[in-house]
Amino acid sequence: MSKVKVLLVDDEVEFASTLAERLQIRGYEAKAVFCAESALDMVRSEPPDVVLLDLKMPGMNGVEVLRTIKKLSPSCQVILLTGHGSEQSAAEWAADGAADYAIKPSEIETLVAKINRANEKRLK
Amino acid sequence: MKDLRISFIGRIISSYTHEVKNYLAIIKETNGLMRDVIEIKKSRGLDEKHFLGFIGCVDEQIGRATAITDYLYRFAHRMEEDRATVHINDLIDELVALMSRLAYRKRISFNKMLRGGLPTTILNPMLFHYLLFCLIEVKMLSLQKNGVISIGTHFSDGFFFVTLTSEGGIVPSSDTTGTSGAGEIEGIAMELGAVISDNGSETVIKIPAVTQVK
Amino acid sequence: MQKEERHTGLVQKFIARYRNLILSDASSVSATPLSKDRYKSLKIRIFLVIGTLAGVPLVMITILSYLSLQGAFKEDFNNQMRGNIESTRQSVEFFIDERISALRFLAAANTYAQLSDERVLQDLFIKFKREFGEVVDLGVINSDGIQASYAGPYSLQGKDYSNQDWFHEVVIRGVYVSDVFMGYRKIPHFAIAVKKEVPERGTFWILRATIDMATLNRYVSIANLKSRDDAFIINHQGILQTQSRYHGNVLEKIAIEAPRPSEEVILSEVRQNGSTPLILGYTSIKKSPWILGMTVASTAQSKLLDLLTRDMVSAYLAVFLVFLGIIANIKFSSALVNWIREAELEREEAIAQSQHSGKLASIGRLGAGVAHEINNPLAIINEKAGLMKDILLMSTDAHINKEKFIGLIQAISDSVTRCKAITQRLLGFARRMDVRHEEIDLNDTIREVIEFLDKEILYRNISLETRLKEDLPRIISDKGQLQQVFLNIINNAIDAVEDGGQIMVSTELRNHDRIRVSIKDNGQGIAKEKIKNIFEPFYTTKEKGKGTGLGLSITYGIVDRLGGSIQVESEVSVGTTFHVELPVRAEAQ
Description:
The complex is a heterotrimer.
Chain A: E1 5-9, H1 13-25, E2 29-33, H2 36-45, E3 50-54, H3 62-72, E4 77-82, H4 87-96, E5 100-103, H5 108-123
Parallel strand pairs in A: 1-2, 1-3, 3-4, 4-5
Helix pairs in contact in A: 2-3
Chain B: H1 2-40, H2 48-78, E1 84-86, H3 88-104, E2 109-114, E3 121-123, H4 125-142, E4 148-156, E5 159-167, H5 181-192, E6 195-198, E7 202-208
Helix pairs in contact in B: 1-2, 1-3, 2-3, 3-4, 4-5
Chain C: H1 2-23, H2 36-109, H3 112-116, H4 118-132, E1 135-142, E2 147-151, H5 165-173, E3 175-177, E4 181-182, E5 188-198, E6 203-212, H6 214-221, E7 230-235, E8 266-270, E9 278-285, E10 290-296, H7 300-310, H8 312-394, H9 402-433, E11 438-440, H10 442-452, H11 454-459, E12 463-468, E13 475-477, H12 479-496, E14 502-510, E15 514-521, H13 528-531, H14 551-561, E16 565-571, E17 575-583
Parallel strand pairs in C: 12-14
Antiparallel strand pairs in C: 1-2, 1-6, 3-5, 4-5, 5-6, 7-10, 8-9, 9-10, 11-13, 14-15, 15-17, 16-17
């Protein structure tokens, strides 16, 4: 079974790269990019299976990035990373195409579970 | 007085900050210790269990810092609207969490007995926080060290009842008016539409449940 | 032309000033802070407006009705006067007519021959006198103008009148009434003569009687006269025929402008130099060479005023009503302004409330923002520590990569530092919000500060006087900081004065919402150009090593943050005064 391709999009370099490394250890093909443009480039060139997208990045609105990714690669599952969430926002994000959301900082196990769930959704 | 409300927010934020700083301090120390261990004990192998212990500690602090930051976030958001649909228990949770450091200074702890399943109501959340803060402060000032403040909630006949009791030694001749003063407390209660009764050992806030904005 | 222009100018100026008074502060209703003085002036302005709006039409109506009443009064008065003159004229005319008729009858009832007999004439004369009174004499004159017979006090027998005007007139007209003349015993008389035609003989004769003016005088003098009024008879030459009260004696030329003959009753105004104007009414008396005149000194105006002032009840009532009106106006203006002030207070409250809400909302957002910010470094620490764990647990390498670990540890450290920076900022923010608010008695605070400096003051023989206003409202502010402020300024004063110098500290309430603390010394003073520098940090006039120069700049900062202000007045070699003004309610910045 091929490795699940995970793309991490977060402007916090240390966070994204470390998390990517941890996912690598856990058998995911994880890459980290640090801005929305790079993320969209990656989605165009090497579409990932699951994207972990930080909402609060400087520049482009996180939700817009989400929509764009979904447009570029509809099968791509996007998990939103956010400092705080609520039921209301979760519903909104789902409506925009998000597969799930996670609160920063999250336990790696939680993230892994979400990634797997999202991937399964993709495969369906 | 409106300035006292802002002052209160300042105190809450201070309390939070001190708490987070503590967690950060622990992380820092643990971190430093890990470094020391690696550097000093270069020759020997790495004691995994030891290290995992450290890391576990760091994790714990992160967890706490995150939790309290979440409370701060919720607390801060409460100030954005002066009417909102709220769960009173949530408001109490937030305030108690953010006041824990203030209470901790006197080794006072909180005991929450919040009944579940209470209906929501519409009120000014920040004002509720403020009222509760003032009443808790009064109790804190009169308690000796190691006291316990219990907060309970229940709902009946269209009213919420928030009960505050303190257990522990009472400080004699203490300034129990706090920085806000009795007049301030009455004022806030009036704005909230709440009634406060105090029989010496128990303070009860009675708030009508509001389901529709007039 | 110039007078008109000046009047217009004045009127315009008045209107402009009046308008300014009313409108001056209309726009600043929203801008200026509430103050009792403003409300007082508003009350006055509204009172004036209402007073004017109510008063002007009222005054105009009063004036108009007074004028119309006066008109009516005048007309009434004139009618009355006319009536008087008419009735007097009628009396006089009747009197003359009666006597003319009597003479005619006498002439018709008797022949010339009969009347030529002096005894007959005398007898007739006595009877005539008895019935008609005041007949002085009776005489017969023949067609040649010679007195044929005579009964009376004079001796006129044989007198020749043929050249006299009256003879010619009676011959032509058939009847003649003479002007008054001074007659027997220096009493005014007049004469009536009638012509009796004797057609059978183609001749005529004249019967003449002299009449005493007494009765006519009486008629004229009882013409319903008030004390300053006058009635008289004059002839066409303006010679008085009766005794006038004010305008001259009988047979003198009348003092005022003589009225002209007139069939109608004419009323006119006569102005006399230095006296009140008179109303003159006059008319000709038929069948006589006379004009009846009447002067009335009391004018319609004074009669009206007279009437009004005599009616005390109405006058008092009117005054009372005006008084009531003024009271009502005052009360209404007061109530209106109070209503406005309440509305403004409410609005200020609402604004303050919404500002407060706005402030809270922004604090909320700030707090939320910070909370958010902290999460990032926390997340990093989380991952780094997690990775360490992963490596320890999952790595299959025999050797743990120590460098890597050190790297991870460093990264954690950096993140913690970041968190700390954020929390520091948050703390600073919280501190600024938490200006310790307590109720402070400024006078007490100042006394405490002075007590603190007691020793120094005594040692240097400085006389420190306090004039602290009693019953100042308590101020809500930060006690510690206020103490710092006053300590600093009083200290400076102590340094500035010589030994034995004077310092005066006073407090007063200004505008009901600010307290002013003044600290005055008679020390060396500050040069005008330097005054603006004194609040700068590190500015000091003391010798090196003495004082950091930070005192006043810190003081200024504290006062500013507390919502107050500092002013300095100073003159070299005279002294310096510091004024610190503080709001009664401090504002949290």
